[in-house]
């Protein structure tokens, strides 16, 4: 295992930190987008459904790379707003995976049995109360597996951000490799290990959330 | 039979269906149905499958909207409300107020699986009636005792038997103190040996209640024991109605006679059939 030398680690870990930061922030944004769009898509207001559907279709129908470029390079020229590279990346990742996530939110809510809704009507609950305390808690445990997959997809998606000047884990790997091509295998081995650790941490987190959501229901 | 005489002259109906028609697509399942339910009255709805019994209940619970006709609850229209001297379609607020007088127990319980038994019963007390948590807990406890489930307050629905689940569902509806309660075949999803415990609970409630009850059931014995009045529905209309004696011992219409004979012969359902047979001998 000599070739997997530790001197590669410090620069890689610097990049790893950026990758993690980006992942966590983007997950937060994606979660918000997923809920807003998912709820909007089952709203009784047609215009709201229309807006949400347009958002979802646009962000699912174009590539993440193009969205990154748009937010970072094109918008400043059209609208006179300049995001930092980090903000642009979080926005693009959040909006993109939020679009996929909204589908998870929507389908989970719709798969709560009809009888649950009827029970809330028979108990005279308001629409808000029903959603907040009966439908969403049950839908939440159905969303978690889908969210788990998307989180890991998002983590992998962060490897594109070096194209808008961010020095993430992949970027650091590429740099190290350009200094010394002979260590290519070692560098990629480290990338593999670090990405896997991050992905596994996300998986464990989702499992924990799943266990909590299922508590007591046996 | 119930001692009180709910159809006193001076009593106003609690619920009135007037010329209620309900269609699903081009299929008409209720045809110009009229029905009055008086305060405290116990009504049993019997009739063949598909005759519209569930639809009658769901219309009152506002789970379905009538195609035409009106339903009044304590003098207020269910789906319409007065505004500037005219009747306009009811808004959520109006429905919310009228609905507070109605409760329902479902065939498949529909308990909230993510809440304990206690919370299933207190949820609407606290968040709909805005009763303080401590008082709601007390009321829930009393109600759970009444249905014999005080030991299970901290369990989740999945940990209970079907009969216990249904008793929780009854407690959950009862604790809201509706003026009229709908029971839609509340024992037909249960294993035969669990039916009795649920029917006993309902009989208990019926014997002490000022609450009106509409019981949809295939348990003829139970209907005869509990109901003041029995309605026989077929093909979306009420074909015949009367006291349990009239309906069971002296059915007039051929359709009711055929329907009852199926139970008496025990050809379709031996269990229920034998119960009716035993009752008819008295
Ligand atoms: N949402 C619906 N869409 C279409 N048809 C429906 C719907 N609900 C009920 N029906 C039809 O209406 C008719 C009456 O149904 P309903 O459930 O009221 O009968 P029921 O007397 O309760 O029967 P059962 O004893 O089987 O419960 C049935 O033919 C049923 O198929
Ligand atoms: Mg039915």
TrEMBL record, chain A:
The keyword Transmembrane applies. It is a multi-pass membrane protein. One of its GO terms (cellular component) is ATP-binding cassette (ABC) transporter complex. GO terms for biological process: amino acid transport. The chain crosses the membrane at residues 20-42, 185-209. It is found in: Cell membrane. GO terms for molecular function: transmembrane transporter activity. It comes from the Bacteria. Signal peptide: none annotated. InterPro entries: AA_ABC_transptr_permease_3TM, ArtM/GltK/GlnP/TcyL/YhdX-like, Ectoine_EhuC, MetI-like, MetI-like_sf. Belongs to the binding-protein-dependent transport system permease family. This is Ectoine/hydroxyectoine ABC transporter permease subunit EhuC. It comes from Cohnella luojiensis. The gene is ehuC.
Automatic annotation (TrEMBL), chain B:
Keywords: Amino-acid transport, ATP-binding, Cell membrane, Membrane, Nucleotide-binding, Transport. It is a peripheral membrane protein. GO terms for molecular function: ABC-type amino acid transporter activity; ATP binding; ATP hydrolysis activity. Its main location: membrane. SMART domains: AAA. Gene3D superfamilies: P-loop containing nucleotide triphosphate hydrolases. It is found in: Cell membrane. It holds the Pfam family ABC_tran. It comes from the Bacteria. The keyword Ubl conjugation does not apply. Transmembrane segments: none annotated. GO terms for cellular component: plasma membrane. Residues 15-260 form the ABC transporter domain. Belongs to the ABC transporter superfamily. This is Ectoine/hydroxyectoine ABC transporter ATP-binding protein EhuA. It comes from Cohnella luojiensis.
């Amino acid at each position: 295992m000599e070739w997997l030398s530790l001197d590669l680690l410090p620069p890689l870990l610097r990049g790893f930190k950026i990758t993690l930061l980006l992942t966590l922030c983007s997950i937060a944004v994606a979660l918000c987008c997923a809920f807003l769009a998912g709820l909007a898509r089952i709203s009784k207001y047609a215009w709201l459904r229309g807006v949400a559907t347009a958002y979802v279709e646009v962000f699912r129908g174009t590539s993440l790379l193009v969205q990154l470029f748009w937010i970072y390079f094109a918008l400043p020229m059209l609208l006179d707003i300049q995001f930092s590279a980090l903000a642009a990346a979080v926005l693009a990742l959040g909006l993109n995976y939020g679009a996929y996530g909204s589908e998870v939110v929507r389908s989970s809510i719709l798969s709560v049995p009809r009888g649950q809704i009827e029970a809330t009507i028979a108990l005279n609950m308001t629409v808000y109360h029903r959603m907040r305390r009966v439908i969403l808690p049950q839908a939440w445990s159905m969303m978690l597996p889908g969210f788990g997959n998307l989180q890991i997809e998002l983590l992998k998606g962060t490897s594109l951000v070096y194209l808008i000047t961010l020095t993430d884990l992949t970027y650091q790997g590429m740099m190290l490799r350009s200094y010394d091509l002979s260590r290519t295998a070692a560098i990629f081995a480290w990338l593999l290990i670090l990405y896997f650790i991050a992905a596994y941490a996300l998986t464990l987190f989702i499992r924990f959330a799943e266990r909590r959501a299922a508590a007591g229901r046996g | 039979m119930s001692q009180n005489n709910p159809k006193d002259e001076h009593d106003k109906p609690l619920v009135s269906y007037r010329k209620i028609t309900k269609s699903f697509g081009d299929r008409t399942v209720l045809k110009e149905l009229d029905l009055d339910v008086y305060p405290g009255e116990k009504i049993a709805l019997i009739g063949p499958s598909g005759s519209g019994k569930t639809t009658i209940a769901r219309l009152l619970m506002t789970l379905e909207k009538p195609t035409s006709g009106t339903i009044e609850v304590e003098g207020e229209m269910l789906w319409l409300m007065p505004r500037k001297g005219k009747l306009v379609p009811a808004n959520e607020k109006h429905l919310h107020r009228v609905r507070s007088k109605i409760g329902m127990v479902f065939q498949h319980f529909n308990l909230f699986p993510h809440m304990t038994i206690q919370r299933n019963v207190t949820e609407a007390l606290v968040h709909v009636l805005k009763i303080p948590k401590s008082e709601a807990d007390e009321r829930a406890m009393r109600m759970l005792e009444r249905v014999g489930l005080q030991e299970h307050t901290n369990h989740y629905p999945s940990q209970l038997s079907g009969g216990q689940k249904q008793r929780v569902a009854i407690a959950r509806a009862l604790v809201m103190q509706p003026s009229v309660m709908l029971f839609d075949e509340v024992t037909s999803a249960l294993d035969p040996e669990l039916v009795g415990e649920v029917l006993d609970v309902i009989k208990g409630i019926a014997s002490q209640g000022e609450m009106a009850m509409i019981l949809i059931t295939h348990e003829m014995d139970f209907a005869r024991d509990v109901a003041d009045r029995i309605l026989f529905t077929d093909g979306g209309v009420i074909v015949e109605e009367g006291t349990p004696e009239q309906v069971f011992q002296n059915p007039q219409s051929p359709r009711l006679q055929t329907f009852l004979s199926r139970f008496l012969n025990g050809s379709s359902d031996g269990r229920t059939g034998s119960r009716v047979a035993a009752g008819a001998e008295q």
